[in-house]
Every structure is written in structure tokens, then in C-alpha cells.
Amino acid sequence: MEFKEKNIAFLKSALTTENRLMPSEKFLHWMKAKNDEVHVKISQIPFYKMRLWRFDASTGNLVHESGRFFSIEGIRVKTNWGKVSEWEQPIINQPEVGFLGIITKMIDGILHFLMQAKIEPGNLNVVQLSPTLQATRSNYSLVHKGKRPLYLEYFNGEKPVKILLDQLQSEQGARFLRKRNRNIIVEIAENETIEVYDNFCWLTLGQIKSFLQHDNLVNMDTRTVISGIPFGEYPPDVLDFYETLKFTSDQNFHENGLLISMLDSKRHLHNVDEIISWMTRQKANYDLEVERIPLNSVKNWIISGDEIYHQNRKYFSVIGVNVEIGNREVQSWDQPLIRAAQEGIIAFIVKKINGIYHFLVQAKLEAGNFDIIELAPTVQCLTGNYRKGQNEYDVMFLDEVLNARPEQIWYSAFQSEEGGRFFKEQNKNLIVEVDESFPVELPENFIWMTLNQLKVFIKYNNYLNIAARSLISAVKFM
Predict the structure, then answer these.
(1) Which of 12, 155, 190, 227 is the most exposed place for a label (fewest CB within 10 A)?
(2) Domain of 408?
(3) Residue 385: what pLDDT?
(4) Are 128 and 118 in contact, with CB atoms under 8 Å apart?
């Protein structure tokens, strides 16, 4: 599939909200049935009862006996970004690069995505819509002594495929130490037969985006993979090609505006070189010094028999769980999970500038970032209480998000963090429109970008953080 054909194929799939193999209404019943039929039991247990996990005698780090999977360690952070210049915290150290992969295939002339109904121990609603393959290196190397992940051969080079997308993308920078996953989408031939196992189904991209309007139905890994999908770019005078894509004139006004922001490559406030220069300036102005330290020496954090927590019960804690899941490669195991102290808020503010919608983007520093700064949503409050007077700093533009009128809110849904590492964590995801009275001029660490420009930067490693990608994945056009 050529580059332009690939973009058009993705766009047609995003504009297709039904398919004969799995109609949307049937899918919702199918997911409910998957939730009802599988045996799942998640129990919090004391750390000493966790099989194959232990606290290292010298450092106090919480580690797996194999030396693989991940560990809970300590870090000391020093920075001149923000109002808190130094702190210590636990963090997940998982140096492996895992696969987050989706198989696609042309069916009835539309690109379909092979998706999985998958259970993770930390999921709020147990079963969520996941990529075809979701596996750490330890998983697919069979360190857990379980079954080989299904469809691995389509991503590790064993089977011939066409690669439509292949990116290294960062994980949550406040929780993971420089963690990345390989986000990959492959295409198999239209005439190739592939077995669709019991927990898998074919969906269009438009269907996946429509399911993102539901709370906690589509998991974080699916969201990060589809966020990187390119749709191409077109000058304004040819954007009337919608008719060839069966784009109708009675389309929702918001979705029409977002589609134009996604495809229009000309009407932007700042060009790409200016954005790169702005981001380079942010990285040059701010320092990020991260030192790995023993977990048992982290200040202001308490290690008890049942959890690791901040002395003021803020941010997050680490707990141990016993997991029993009936349809996984390994059906019973123990592991640590991160439990958030409260729900967070992730929000983009959008404003029409030069006749096209721009997103208000933040340059945000987080302790686990590879390169100091990543592009983040306008508001991102995950690890601290965002309410005024209960945080170490005021969150810029938070009032505009919290006080938005119903007609300003283009998107609102609770979305879960990744259930393999986070325990029942969800954050409110919002896209909020502001009017012409909202200033175009911004503080130094904010900038206006179109969706088309955000897509340009998603292509490269460590530019858009996972919160920004999660919100972009929810943008739909039908």
C-alpha cells in the first residue's frame, strides 16, 4: 500500500462506523458477554504473600525473582521546571520495549482492525478493547512460563506483512522511568485467511473511535496505537473531496471542524519549524536531573506490609495483588500495581484561529521523560489533587475546563490507565471549546497547534506524551 493510499485507507475506515462482521450494537452485547462469562478475581494481598516477588535486601526495591518484568524503585528528581524543585518518589522501572500491535485487513473495500477483548488485573470494568497483541518482552519471551501470545508471528518477523505504522512511544512519565513501547500496525493481504480466535473481532477505525465515547471501554494501549494513525494532508482548495469519502453535508459541526483541523496543512498559526524551535527552547531552558536511589531511602514515603504510600496519602500508592483470570496465558499470578489517590483530569482546549481549530498544547516535564519535555494536553492532573488549595501549584487553564458550559464540551468520557500496571485508575478526558475572547497569546510553555501538526509530531519518538495521544485517539469524524 503506497503512502497516499495508506492515508486514504485509514481515513475511509475512520469514516465508517458500521461493518457487517461485527455491527456496533452487537459489539456492545459481545463485550458485555465477555465480561459476564470469564472468571476474574483480583485480591489485594500483603507484599510478603506475593509469589516470586520480594524486597531486595540492600536497596528495598520491589523486584521479580527472574530479574525481568519490572521493578519498583526510588528516584530523586531535581529540576527548575515548575514550583517544586526537588522531590523523591517510587517509580516503575521497566526497561523492556513491548509490542502494542494491531493487524489490519481490507474487507469489503474498508480497512478493518483485528481487536481483542482483553482482561488486565487493574481494569475497572474487567474486559476492555485491546490491540491484537499486547505483550512485554518478558511475556513473549515466556519468562512467565505461560502460553505464547496469539498472533505474535505477525509482529516479530516470522510472517510477511506490510507495516503501516511503526513507532516507539513513551508511557506515563510520572510513573514509569523512561519507558517505551513499540506501537505497530501491520496489514495482511486481502485474500489471506487468518484465524479469528474467540476473544477477537474485526472493527473499523470509525467503530473504535465511536466506542471511545463510552467510559472505560477502549484500553490505553489501543488508544496510543490508533493516535499515531496518519490521515494525510490536503490544501484547503481540495478539501471538498469529502464527497468521494461519502462525507455528508449534515455532519456534526464539531466533527467537521476537527476533520478539517486534521487534514488541512496550510492554515496554522505557527509552522512546524517554529514549533520545533519553541520546543527546543523549552528543553534548553529547563533541567531534569533524575537519580535512581534505593526504594527504602525515598523521603516522605512509607513502606508498610500492605502498601507503599506517601506520608500525606497523596499522589499514588503501590499495592500487591493476587490475580486469577480464566483466559490469560497464565491464569494465576501475583504482582504489584499502582493505585492512584484520586481521579485526574486530562483536557485539551480548542479555539478557532485563522478559520481552523487549534489545540492548546502544553510543554510538560515529567520525571520519567526521555528528553525533559513532552507535548501534553492543556490540563493534565494525574498524580496530585488538582483542586485549588490541595496541590503544590495552581494548574493553568483549569478553571476554563472545570467551568465550561455544556455547549463548550465537545468530548467527555472517563478513560482508564493501563490495567497491567495501574489499579482501577481512571481520568476524566475532555475537549473544551473557547470563544474569540480567549487570548491567542499564551504563557511561554504553551502553544497553539492544529491536529494536523500534532499528527506530524506523533510520528517521532518522545514528542507527544501518552495523555495527549489518548485524547487525540478519541477525536472522531462521524
Answers:
(1) 190
(2) 253-287+342-473
(3) 63
(4) yes
- The SS3 assignment for 412 reads strand
Amino acid at 264: D
Cell of 217: 471501554
Establish if 432 belongs to a structural domain. Answer: yes
How many domains is the chain built from?
Answer: 1
- Of 146, 115, 148, nearest to 130 by C-alpha is 115
* Gyration radius of the chain's alpha carbons: 22
| Residue type at position 389 | G
Q: What is the CATH number of the domain that holds 393?
A: 3.90.79.40
pLDDT given at position 247: 47
What does each C-alpha distance from 94 to 46, 68, 219, 380, 461 come to in angstroms? 22, 8, 20, 23, 18
For residue 351, being part of any structural domain is answered with yes
Buried b (16+ CB within 10 A) or exposed e, 336-359: bbbbbbbebbbbbbbbeeeebbbb
Distance (Å, whole) CA 332 – CA 329: 9
Yes or no: say if 170 and 179 are a contact pair by the CB < 8 Å rule: yes
Q: Is 210 exposed, middle or buried (0-12, 13-18, 19+ CB in 10 A)?
A: buried
Residues 6+ apart with CB under 8 A from 400: 349, 432, 434, 438
Strands (E), 269-416: 288-293, 301-303, 307-310, 316-325, 332-340, 344-353, 356-365, 373-376, 379-381, 409-416
Q: Is residue 346 part of a domain?
A: yes
| Angle between helices 451-458 and 466-473 in degrees, nearest 10 | 130
Q: 249 pLDDT exceeds 50?
A: no
CA dihedral 259, 353, 226, 339 (to 10 degrees): -140
Q: What is the DSSP string of 110-155?
A: EEEEEEEEEE-TT-TTSEEEE-SEEE-HHHHTTTT--PPPTTGGGT
Tell whether 421 is covered by a domain: yes
In whole angstroms, what is the distance from residue 8 CA to residue 363 CA?
31
Write the pLDDT tens digit of every residue in 422-453. 999 999 999 999 999 999 999 999 999 999 99
Q: Is the pLDDT at 243 greater than 50, yes or no?
A: no
C-alpha dihedral over 19, 22, 23, 29, to 10 degrees? Answer: -170
Contacts of 66 (CB under 8 A, 6+ apart): 52, 138, 143
Residue showing cell 478513560: 415
